[in-house]
Write a structure and sequence with these properties.
The protein is built from 14 helices and eight strands. By secondary structure, the protein is of the alpha/beta class. The mean pLDDT is 92. It binds one RNA strand of 77 nucleotides through helix 13.
Length: 320
RNA sequence: CCCGCCUUAGCUCAAUUUGGCAGAGCAUCGGACUGUAGAUCCGAGGGUUGCUGGUUCAAGUCCGGCAGGCGGGACCA
């Protein structure tokens, strides 16, 4: 793969690359390191999968991939006891592998290095140079609840910045909600004598209820290992306004999970509704926006294809 | 450490001056209407009233203790 091809592959489907020049330099390095952190979660859903797929793109472009299983972060965010969190982090690890990450992917438990003396020391250093307002602002879209704010909430972003040092990160990937922490890292790390990481941000998938973000705590997600009839039911219930492409979760699922596999989507519909159609992504947007494709026909097609696409993931997770 | 206020359904809050079967809105689920969902209309489920001890025929309500939250005061070599 040549440089431009790698760049295009990495950029595809992201909302921003900070910065493209820096990313080019990173690609030229020998075994550059790309990282993403996840708070272990009871269910790994399509929102997670978007970022995992992007990590695979990075892997294919020659990056060494490190996945941080951020148990302490989840703990600081009120997700439960460390024991509970560690248990589901093993399940998450299997989910991420099921999505197609290669064998040399490194999974690292946050607590395995986040209590090192040097790490702790640097937390204090960073705590001294970061304003409360800045730290809280960076957490606006991440923190679990919006009142009874705990000190944990501002320790969280500091740790995330330091993780990038300890994991030797060249590129940090995250959904758009991670942006402000990433920007804090880009500003803070050089001050501490380290190179700023390149930051890649993927879009957030809307919840099946049409809300801003698919989230395992809101019952508006499709898990990567949901059984076919569960996927069917959830998609049938999905918010899907006729003719509207923006913020439409069914369209988004087609974009990020169907059209990344196939060039076209086959719409099967009865003759009385116009008969079958075969659409590429661009056609889909056009025709749907013109009200020439009924939401139910779209749903049925996406349901059928998504169930097939997630089949190997389900199988992998059922095996031992 | 001291004082005051607060804690009721998943969430926000009601529950008559003076103890008498714990309610509403939102959310959830179901039905109607749309060839989807949503919106709208109709209906249903949902509770150890923070925990604990007491007073009383009867306690969300009164009294004691504990926990958590909020505010103030005090201390500050």
């Amino acid at each position: 793969m040549d440089l431009n091809f790698k760049m295009e592959n990495i950029k595809r489907g992201t909302l921003e690359v900070v910065t493209e020049e820096e990313l080019k330099d990173k690609i030229k390095k020998d075994k550059p390191i790309a990282y993403i952190g996840y708070e272990p979660s009871g269910s790994v859903h399509l929102g997670h999968a978007i970022t995992v797929k992007k990590m695979i793109d990075l892997q294919n472009a020659g990056f060494k991939v490190k996945i941080l299983l951020a148990d302490f972060h989840a703990y600081l965010n009120g997700k439960g006891s460390l024991e509970e969190i560690e248990k589901i982090s093993n399940y998450n690890k299997k989910c991420f592998r099921a999505l197609g990450l290669s064998e040399d992917t490194e999974f690292i438990l946050g607590s395995s290095f986040q209590t090192l003396e040097d790490y702790t020391h640097k937390i204090y250093e960073l705590a001294l140079s970061t304003t409360l307002t800045r730290a809280k602002r960076s957490m606006a879209q991440i923190t679990r609840d919006s009142k009874d704010h705990k000190v944990a909430e501002v320790i969280y972003p500091l740790m995330q910045v330091l993780d990038m040092i300890f994991l030797n990160v060249d590129v940090a990937l995250g959904g758009m909600e991670q942006r402000k922490i990433h920007m804090l890292a880009r500003e803070s790390l050089p001050r501490m004598g380290y190179e700023a990481p390149v930051c890649l941000h993927t879009p957030l998938l809307h919840g099946t209820d049409g809300s801003d973000k698919m989230s395992s705590s809101k019952e508006n997600y499709i898990a990567i290992d949901d059984e076919p009839d569960v996927i069917r039911k959830k998609l049938q219930k999905s918010f899907c306004p006729q003719g509207q492409v923006e913020g439409n979760p069914v369209i988004e699922i087609a974009e990020h999970f169907v059209f990344t596999e196939d060039k076209t989507l086959l719409i099967e519909r009865p003759e009385k509704f116009g008969g079958n159609l075969e659409l590429n992504y661009k056609d889909l947007l056009e025709i749907y926006a013109k009200n020439e494709l009924h939401p139910l026909d779209l749903k049925n097609s996406v349901i059928k294809r998504l169930i097939e696409i997630l089949e190997p993931v389900r199988e992998y997770l059922k095996s031992d």
